[in-house]
Protein backbone atom coordinates (compact mmCIF):
# COMPACT_ATOMS: atom_id res chain seq x y z
CA UNK A 1 0.00 0.00 0.00
CA UNK A 2 1.36 3.42 -1.01
CA UNK A 3 0.36 6.56 0.90
CA UNK A 4 1.52 10.01 -0.21
CA UNK A 5 3.53 12.26 2.06
CA UNK A 6 0.93 15.01 1.57
CA UNK A 7 -1.75 12.81 3.12
CA UNK A 8 0.48 12.02 6.07
CA UNK A 9 1.39 15.70 6.56
CA UNK A 10 -2.27 16.64 6.53
CA UNK A 11 -3.08 13.86 8.98
CA UNK A 12 -0.31 15.01 11.32
CA UNK A 13 -1.50 18.63 11.19
CA UNK A 14 -5.04 17.57 12.13
CA UNK A 15 -3.71 15.26 14.83
CA UNK A 16 -1.54 17.97 16.37
CA UNK A 17 -4.04 20.83 16.21
CA UNK A 18 -7.13 18.76 17.04
CA UNK A 19 -9.12 20.61 14.41
CA UNK A 20 -9.78 20.47 10.67
CA UNK A 21 -10.07 24.26 10.64
CA UNK A 22 -6.77 24.82 12.47
CA UNK A 23 -4.99 22.26 10.29
CA UNK A 24 -6.28 23.98 7.16
CA UNK A 25 -4.89 27.30 8.38
CA UNK A 26 -1.57 25.71 9.28
CA UNK A 27 -1.25 24.02 5.89
CA UNK A 28 -2.75 26.96 3.96
CA UNK A 29 -5.36 24.66 2.44
CA UNK A 30 -9.14 24.87 2.34
CA UNK A 31 -11.13 22.97 4.95
CA UNK A 32 -12.77 20.77 2.27
CA UNK A 33 -9.30 19.87 0.95
CA UNK A 34 -8.11 18.83 4.41
CA UNK A 35 -11.29 16.84 5.03
CA UNK A 36 -10.91 15.09 1.68
CA UNK A 37 -7.28 14.18 2.37
CA UNK A 38 -8.13 12.76 5.80
CA UNK A 39 -10.92 10.68 4.26
CA UNK A 40 -8.55 9.45 1.55
CA UNK A 41 -6.04 8.35 4.16
CA UNK A 42 -8.76 6.64 6.22
CA UNK A 43 -9.91 4.81 3.09
CA UNK A 44 -6.36 3.72 2.26
CA UNK A 45 -5.81 2.44 5.80
CA UNK A 46 -9.32 1.01 6.05
CA UNK A 47 -9.85 2.42 9.52
CA UNK A 48 -11.14 5.70 11.02
CA UNK A 49 -8.51 8.09 12.32
CA UNK A 50 -10.67 10.74 13.98
CA UNK A 51 -13.98 10.97 15.75
CA UNK A 52 -15.78 14.15 14.71
CA UNK A 53 -16.86 16.20 17.73
CA UNK A 54 -18.91 19.42 18.04
CA UNK A 55 -15.64 21.29 18.54
CA UNK A 56 -12.75 19.73 16.64
CA UNK A 57 -11.79 16.09 16.30
CA UNK A 58 -10.53 13.39 18.67
CA UNK A 59 -7.91 10.90 17.44
CA UNK A 60 -8.68 7.20 17.51
CA UNK A 61 -6.24 4.58 18.75
CA UNK A 62 -5.24 4.02 15.12
CA UNK A 63 -4.41 7.72 14.79
CA UNK A 64 -2.30 7.65 17.94
CA UNK A 65 -0.33 4.70 16.58
CA UNK A 66 0.10 6.27 13.13
CA UNK A 67 1.28 9.57 14.63
CA UNK A 68 3.77 7.73 16.81
CA UNK A 69 5.22 5.97 13.78
CA UNK A 70 5.38 8.84 11.26
CA UNK A 71 5.79 12.09 13.23
CA UNK A 72 9.54 11.97 13.82
CA UNK A 73 10.30 10.94 10.22
CA UNK A 74 8.09 13.66 8.74
CA UNK A 75 9.58 16.30 11.03
CA UNK A 76 13.09 15.22 10.04
CA UNK A 77 12.20 15.34 6.34
CA UNK A 78 10.61 18.77 6.71
CA UNK A 79 13.69 20.01 8.57
CA UNK A 80 15.94 18.88 5.71
CA UNK A 81 13.69 20.47 3.10
CA UNK A 82 13.25 23.60 5.22
CA UNK A 83 16.99 24.05 5.52
CA UNK A 84 17.19 24.33 1.73
CA UNK A 85 14.46 26.95 1.46
CA UNK A 86 15.06 30.72 1.52
CA UNK A 87 15.14 32.08 5.07
CA UNK A 88 13.45 35.38 4.18
CA UNK A 89 10.05 34.48 5.63
CA UNK A 90 8.98 36.43 8.69
CA UNK A 91 8.78 34.74 12.07
CA UNK A 92 5.52 35.50 13.89
CA UNK A 93 6.02 35.77 17.64
CA UNK A 94 3.26 36.38 20.19
CA UNK A 95 3.32 37.26 23.87
CA UNK A 96 2.40 39.82 26.53
CA UNK A 97 2.92 43.37 25.25
CA UNK A 98 4.99 44.42 28.25
CA UNK A 99 7.35 41.45 28.36
CA UNK A 100 7.93 41.38 24.62
CA UNK A 101 8.46 45.14 24.41
CA UNK A 102 10.66 45.51 27.49
CA UNK A 103 12.62 42.26 27.43
CA UNK A 104 12.33 40.28 24.20
CA UNK A 105 12.67 43.05 21.60
CA UNK A 106 16.22 43.97 22.71
CA UNK A 107 17.13 40.28 22.72
CA UNK A 108 16.13 39.99 19.07
CA UNK A 109 18.49 42.77 17.97
CA UNK A 110 21.35 40.51 16.73
CA UNK A 111 18.98 38.41 14.63
CA UNK A 112 17.18 41.41 13.13
CA UNK A 113 20.47 43.12 12.31
CA UNK A 114 21.42 39.86 10.59
CA UNK A 115 18.42 40.18 8.28
CA UNK A 116 15.78 38.16 10.12
CA UNK A 117 12.21 39.40 9.64
CA UNK A 118 9.98 39.33 12.75
CA UNK A 119 6.31 40.17 13.33
CA UNK A 120 5.08 40.61 16.91
CA UNK A 121 1.53 40.03 18.14
CA UNK A 122 0.44 41.13 21.61
CA UNK A 123 -2.37 39.51 23.55
CA UNK A 124 -3.52 37.17 26.29
CA UNK A 125 -1.86 33.76 26.47
CA UNK A 126 -5.03 31.74 25.83
CA UNK A 127 -5.73 33.64 22.60
CA UNK A 128 -2.11 33.53 21.45
CA UNK A 129 -1.82 29.79 22.06
CA UNK A 130 -4.97 29.24 19.99
CA UNK A 131 -3.34 31.27 17.19
CA UNK A 132 -0.18 29.18 17.55
CA UNK A 133 -2.14 25.93 17.26
CA UNK A 134 -3.96 27.32 14.23
CA UNK A 135 -0.72 28.23 12.46
CA UNK A 136 -1.15 32.00 12.67
CA UNK A 137 1.87 32.31 14.98
CA UNK A 138 5.21 30.48 15.00
CA UNK A 139 6.21 31.01 18.63
CA UNK A 140 4.49 32.26 21.78
CA UNK A 141 5.85 33.51 25.08
CA UNK A 142 3.07 32.31 27.37
CA UNK A 143 2.36 33.24 30.98
CA UNK A 144 0.35 30.03 31.44
CA UNK A 145 1.40 26.42 30.94
CA UNK A 146 0.27 25.40 27.42
CA UNK A 147 -1.95 22.33 27.44
CA UNK A 148 -2.99 22.25 23.77
CA UNK A 149 -2.34 19.05 21.84
CA UNK A 150 0.33 19.66 19.22
CA UNK A 151 2.12 22.40 21.16
CA UNK A 152 5.48 21.92 22.84
CA UNK A 153 6.60 24.33 25.55
CA UNK A 154 9.59 24.83 27.81
CA UNK A 155 9.69 26.91 31.00
CA UNK A 156 12.08 29.80 30.38
CA UNK A 157 11.70 32.35 33.18
CA UNK A 158 10.14 33.09 36.55
CA UNK A 159 8.51 36.50 36.85
CA UNK A 160 8.64 37.99 40.37
CA UNK A 161 5.86 40.35 41.51
CA UNK A 162 6.17 43.38 43.80
CA UNK A 163 3.47 45.44 45.55
CA UNK A 164 4.47 49.06 44.87
CA UNK A 165 3.35 52.64 45.42
CA UNK A 166 4.85 56.09 44.91
CA UNK A 167 7.47 57.16 47.46
CA UNK A 168 4.99 59.43 49.27
CA UNK A 169 3.00 56.34 50.32
CA UNK A 170 5.92 54.70 52.13
CA UNK A 171 4.81 53.01 55.34
CA UNK A 172 1.11 53.04 54.52
CA UNK A 173 -0.98 49.87 54.63
CA UNK A 174 -1.98 48.74 51.08
CA UNK A 175 -5.70 48.65 51.95
CA UNK A 176 -5.53 52.40 52.62
CA UNK A 177 -4.54 53.13 49.01
CA UNK A 178 -6.57 53.03 45.79
CA UNK A 179 -5.87 49.97 43.64
CA UNK A 180 -4.60 50.37 40.09
CA UNK A 181 -5.15 47.16 38.13
CA UNK A 182 -4.51 45.51 34.79
CA UNK A 183 -8.04 44.09 34.52
CA UNK A 184 -11.40 44.50 36.22
CA UNK A 185 -11.16 41.10 37.96
CA UNK A 186 -7.74 41.99 39.45
CA UNK A 187 -5.95 38.79 38.34
CA UNK A 188 -2.43 39.83 39.34
CA UNK A 189 -3.51 41.74 42.46
CA UNK A 190 -5.80 38.94 43.70
CA UNK A 191 -3.07 36.35 43.34
CA UNK A 192 -0.61 38.53 45.27
CA UNK A 193 -3.08 39.26 48.08
CA UNK A 194 -3.99 35.59 48.38
CA UNK A 195 -0.35 34.47 48.46
CA UNK A 196 1.06 37.17 50.74
CA UNK A 197 -1.91 38.24 52.90
CA UNK A 198 -4.01 35.07 52.73
CA UNK A 199 -7.14 36.90 51.62
CA UNK A 200 -8.75 38.84 48.78
CA UNK A 201 -8.23 42.60 48.29
CA UNK A 202 -10.70 44.65 50.30
CA UNK A 203 -11.58 47.02 47.45
CA UNK A 204 -12.20 47.08 43.72
CA UNK A 205 -9.87 48.82 41.29
CA UNK A 206 -9.95 52.60 41.27
CA UNK A 207 -8.41 52.56 37.79
CA UNK A 208 -8.05 49.76 35.21
CA UNK A 209 -5.36 49.99 32.53
CA UNK A 210 -4.90 46.96 30.21
CA UNK A 211 -1.15 47.51 29.89
CA UNK A 212 1.21 47.10 32.83
CA UNK A 213 3.34 49.99 31.60
CA UNK A 214 0.30 52.23 31.99
CA UNK A 215 -0.29 50.79 35.45
CA UNK A 216 3.32 51.64 36.31
CA UNK A 217 2.89 55.24 35.17
CA UNK A 218 -0.31 55.60 37.20
CA UNK A 219 1.48 54.37 40.32
CA UNK A 220 4.44 56.69 39.67
CA UNK A 221 1.95 59.56 39.42
CA UNK A 222 0.70 58.78 42.92
CA UNK A 223 -2.72 57.43 41.93
CA UNK A 224 -2.48 54.37 44.17
CA UNK A 225 -0.74 51.02 44.55
CA UNK A 226 -0.47 47.98 42.32
CA UNK A 227 1.33 44.69 41.83
CA UNK A 228 3.90 44.71 39.03
CA UNK A 229 6.57 42.36 37.69
CA UNK A 230 9.93 43.35 39.10
CA UNK A 231 11.47 43.87 35.64
CA UNK A 232 9.10 46.82 35.11
CA UNK A 233 9.67 48.56 38.43
CA UNK A 234 13.19 47.56 39.52
CA UNK A 235 14.84 50.79 38.30
CA UNK A 236 12.15 52.95 39.93
CA UNK A 237 12.57 51.10 43.23
CA UNK A 238 16.32 51.62 43.05
CA UNK A 239 15.90 55.35 42.37
CA UNK A 240 13.42 55.80 45.21
CA UNK A 241 10.55 56.86 42.95
CA UNK A 242 8.66 53.74 44.07
CA UNK A 243 8.58 51.86 47.35
CA UNK A 244 7.67 48.25 48.05
CA UNK A 245 4.72 48.09 50.44
CA UNK A 246 5.45 44.49 51.41
CA UNK A 247 8.58 42.37 51.39
CA UNK A 248 7.49 38.74 51.70
CA UNK A 249 10.17 36.17 52.38
CA UNK A 250 9.17 34.33 49.21
CA UNK A 251 7.77 36.78 46.62
CA UNK A 252 4.95 35.51 44.39
CA UNK A 253 6.22 34.36 41.01
CA UNK A 254 4.75 33.23 37.73
CA UNK A 255 6.51 30.92 35.28
CA UNK A 256 6.71 31.88 31.62
CA UNK A 257 6.98 29.39 28.76
CA UNK A 258 8.28 29.48 25.19
CA UNK A 259 5.84 27.52 23.05
CA UNK A 260 6.07 26.19 19.49
CA UNK A 261 3.92 23.88 17.39
CA UNK A 262 5.11 20.29 17.17
CA UNK A 263 7.22 20.17 14.03
CA UNK A 264 7.41 23.97 13.88
CA UNK A 265 11.17 24.02 14.34
CA UNK A 266 11.60 22.45 10.91
CA UNK A 267 11.45 26.02 9.55
CA UNK A 268 14.99 27.37 9.91
CA UNK A 269 14.04 30.97 10.84
CA UNK A 270 11.69 29.71 13.56
CA UNK A 271 14.37 27.38 14.91
CA UNK A 272 16.86 30.27 15.02
CA UNK A 273 14.54 32.52 17.01
CA UNK A 274 13.51 29.68 19.31
CA UNK A 275 17.10 28.72 20.15
CA UNK A 276 18.17 32.35 20.53
CA UNK A 277 15.31 33.25 22.88
CA UNK A 278 15.76 30.12 25.00
CA UNK A 279 19.38 31.08 25.61
CA UNK A 280 18.83 34.84 25.97
CA UNK A 281 15.87 34.67 28.37
CA UNK A 282 17.45 31.98 30.53
CA UNK A 283 20.63 34.04 30.78
CA UNK A 284 18.78 36.80 32.67
CA UNK A 285 19.23 36.20 36.43
CA UNK A 286 15.71 37.31 37.37
CA UNK A 287 12.67 39.10 36.05
From TrEMBL:
It comes from the Bacteria. Residues 3-60 form the HTH lysR-type domain. GO terms for molecular function: DNA-binding transcription factor activity; transcription cis-regulatory region binding. Keywords: DNA-binding, Transcription, Transcription regulation. The keyword Cell membrane does not apply. It holds the Pfam family HTH_1. PROSITE patterns: HTH_LYSR. The keyword Disulfide bond does not apply. Belongs to the LysR transcriptional regulatory family. This is LysR family transcriptional regulator.
